[in-house]
UniProtKB/TrEMBL annotation:
This is Glycosyl transferase family 1 domain-containing protein. Coiled coil: none annotated. Residues 73-224 form the Glycosyl transferase family domain. It comes from Candidatus Beckwithbacteria bacterium CG23_combo_of_CG06-09_8_20_14_all_47_9. One of its GO terms (molecular function) is glycosyltransferase activity.
């Protein structure tokens, strides 16, 4: 903002999700209030606002520009491991991993499921404790480079994103691009089209685990959606053109 007011430069911002709501979920009410004020000021001053959720197009000077992935790097391959349930993300309250652990514990295949979460954060100890209490086989792995992440997506039976709130989740797009059977919680901005590119609702975990063919069909359609709508190469070109318009 300083560059805009001091040097007259165009201000372009990306608005991914409700940052204030995120802080509330994390139990930080003062930060939530501060973020609400800051976001209002920044959006009011912006010459262009890139939104990753079309529902935010009501904002002034906004244009829809979602996150993207490279489908040539994130692609299907390898052999699927039955009953391997994967999630990727920060170990934070907002990610809602306790609900995922509970969903696994209620599965008819609970004793056979290997739940793996790739990420780190403040909730690690609590999640491991919760999994032990519910007799869920949980492994938590530190964040991995993209090359190694791909193989995990490829071999998972189901990829799950249990978040309460998201913007345009990169991990979900990566999993879709790899042709994963994807399962998510219901949240604003979800890129999964229920019953078409994945399933929405953690209670549907067994539908994917017990019916691999369903997961394969949904995974194929998920990859097609990424190629058609979330290909990083075409999105970069769009962003370049939009930025050029701002400096004319």
């Amino acid at each position: 903002m300083l560059a805009k007011f001091i040097f007259g430069k165009p201000l372009v911002v990306t608005y991914g999700y409700d940052y204030s709501h995120f802080a509330q979920i994390e139990g930080r009410p003062v930060l939530a209030l501060l973020l609400k004020l800051v976001v209002r000021l920044v959006l009011a001053a912006a010459d262009r606002v890139f939104v990753t959720d079309p529902k935010n197009l009501y904002l002034k000077r906004s244009v829809y520009l979602p996150n993207g992935v490279d489908p040539d790097k994130f692609k299907p391959g390898g052999k699927c491991r039955p009953n391997l349930v994967l999630s990727v993300g920060r170990l934070a309250l907002q990610k809602n991993y306790r609900s995922l652990i509970r969903a696994v514990s209620r599965s008819v295949l609970a004793s056979k499921i290997k739940l793996t979460i790739i990420g780190e954060g403040s909730q690690r100890h609590k999640l491991l404790k919760s999994a032990k209490k519910l007799r869920v086989n949980l492994s938590i792995i530190k964040p991995l480079p993209h090359q190694e992440l791909v193989s995990w997506y490829q071999k998972s039976a189901v990829f799950v994103l249990p978040s309460k709130i998201e913007g345009n989740p990169k991990a979900l797009l990566e999993a879709m691009s790899c042709g994963c059977a994807c399962l998510t919680a219901g949240f604003t901005g979800n890129v999964i089209d229920d019953q078409k590119t994945g399933l929405v609702g953690l209670e549907k975990l067994d539908q994917l685990l017990l019916n691999p063919k369903l997961g394969q069909n949904l995974g194929r359609q998920a990859r097609e959606a990424v190629i058609n709508r979330y290909n990083i190469k075409s999105l970069i070109n769009q962003e370049i053109e939009l930025l050029k318009q701002c400096i004319k």
